[in-house]
Write a structure and sequence with these properties.
The protein is α/β, with parallel strands linked by helices. It has two domains: 314 residues, Alpha-Beta Barrel (TIM Barrel), CATH 3.20.20; 47 residues, no CATH class. The chain has an eight-stranded parallel beta sheet. Helix 2 packs antiparallel against helix 4 and helix 3 packs across helix 4. The longest helix has 20 residues. The protein is globular and about 80 Å long. The termini are far apart.
Length: 427
């Protein structure tokens, strides 16, 4: 005869009214309140992705070379290179390694983009691309840049996003960095009477959260002195030192940097060459797609996921030495491969340094968005219509959000038309 196992949870004789569950704990109220408080605290720290459009690139231009027509000049030169070296869909597809099924459409839309909005974000550079110069010379270039920005603004020639990169607080150039930003903003206020929208500051070579706290304090003082609204001066950091990735205690540094920025941090941009040089990589291995860079980028993703701080990859330093087809196509091949590498790792923005980078940037980005887009649209529509999967894919709400975000990015950069977007995002 088999023994009967004891009933550890005996069923009460009286189950109560039908449909009513009897509970053993009389009240969860205290736990519920604490759970809600913990959820609210997490929501403050990780409010979700940033709202609005993210540029696909940031174009860095040395301050002494910036003029009111620089964005348009970049576009004109990029379009000339495109038409010279890839006059048709076949040559375009071959140059950028595209599927023939999408090459023609991608080329058409890249050409339109270079004609209408070649630069989505420009950073006028007073740091590495500009170098260290006498104060009188840099002051003169500040005045020159103010006039160029004012002239571009008045003819609607500024890109959607724009701003300055100042010198680092880590190299002993902090006085010059503050003088440059103050001088620029003061002169621009006097020239235009306002700060045009889309402005951001790039703060390079961050080593510690303390540097960010000091920069934040400086921006507060600057706003007060200029009569600007509190918090309007926002900035992005460049993660290009090992200390900005892992601190001396072995912890990710970026959460403390974010806290020190006091709500002003908009983005974190990875700096390929300073970072790989600091690790001791040989020059031939200092490249965007090195595994050491993947590690840093992944730490950045984990540390800043859900914080509303956007991520940007770094740059490719390969540019054509002349207009010869071998030179141009070689540069395009390397740059497009790097852009694809970034996209595969979830980095949708990067740096561009030369007009030749614009065709390869948009070719890679548009191909990424257009390849398989019918399947993406179908899965999103099926989810909304059926609250479930179609075509053998049972999508989770998080996956649908990612698919919708991909479509949103494609629309924002000009790869797709607004009509592909659903009316609202999944819950």
């Amino acid at each position: 005869m088999r023994a009967t196992a004891p009933n550890r949870f005996p069923i009460p004789a009286d189950m109560g009214d039908h449909g009513v569950v009897n509970l053993s704990v009389s009240s969860f109220d205290d736990l519920s309140a604490r759970i809600a408080a913990a959820r609210a605290e997490h929501g403050e720290r990780r409010p979700g992705p940033a709202d609005g459009r993210q540029p696909v690139h940031t174009v860095y231009v040395p301050a002494d070379r910036f003029s009111r027509s620089t964005p348009a000049d970049f576009g004109a030169e990029a379009l000339r290179l495109l038409n010279t070296h890839t006059p048709g869909a076949g040559s375009f597809g071959a140059a950028f390694g595209l599927d023939p099924e999408v090459a023609g459409l991608v080329r058409e839309r890249v050409a339109a983009k270079l004609s209408s909005e070649p630069v989505e974000d420009v950073r006028i550079d007073f740091e590495d691309g500009y170098g260290v110069r006498p104060d009188e010379e840099e002051d003169a270039h500040i005045a020159q840049v103010v006039e160029a920005v004012a002239a571009a603004y008045q003819v609607k020639g500024l890109p959607h996003y724009w701003g300055l990169r100042v010198k680092s607080f880590a190299d002993g150039d902090h006085d010059r960095a503050m003088r440059t930003l103050d001088g620029f903003l003061t002169a621009l206020r006097d020239r235009l009477g306002r700060l045009p929208g889309g402005f951001t500051i790039t703060f390079p070579k961050v080593v510690t959260a303390g540097q960010v706290a000091l920069f934040t304090e400086y921006l507060e003082r600057l706003e007060t002195a200029l009569g600007l609204p509190s918090g309007i001066l926002r900035f992005e950091i460049q993660v290009e030192t090992p200390e900005a990735v892992i601190d001396e205690e072995g912890r990710a540094t970026l959460p403390s940097i974010l806290s020190a920025a006091a709500g002003r941090l908009t983005a974190a941009h990875f700096g390929v060459f300073d970072y790989t040089a600091a690790l001791g990589l040989p020059p031939e291995e200092q490249r965007l797609d090195h595994p050491a860079c993947d590690f840093a980028r992944h730490v950045m993703q984990v540390a800043l996921a859900g914080t509303g701080v956007r991520l940007s990859d770094g740059s490719t330093n390969v540019i054509p030495r002349n207009d010869g087809p071998d030179e141009v196509n070689a540069a395009w091949s390397v740059h497009a491969a790097h852009v694809r590498h970034s996209l595969r790792h979830g980095y949708y923005q990067g740096w561009d340094l030369h007009p030749a980078h614009l065709p390869s940037r948009y070719a890679a980005v548009y191909a990424f968005h257009l390849t398989g887009v019918d399947d993406v649209i179908g899965r999103v529509r099926a989810w909304y219509e059926q609250a479930g999967g179609a075509g053998g894919v049972l999508d989770e709400p998080a996956t649908v959000k990612a698919l919708v975000a991909r479509l949103r990015r494609a629309v924002d950069c000009g790869a797709l038309d607004e009509s592909v977007l659903p009316a609202s995002a999944p819950g």
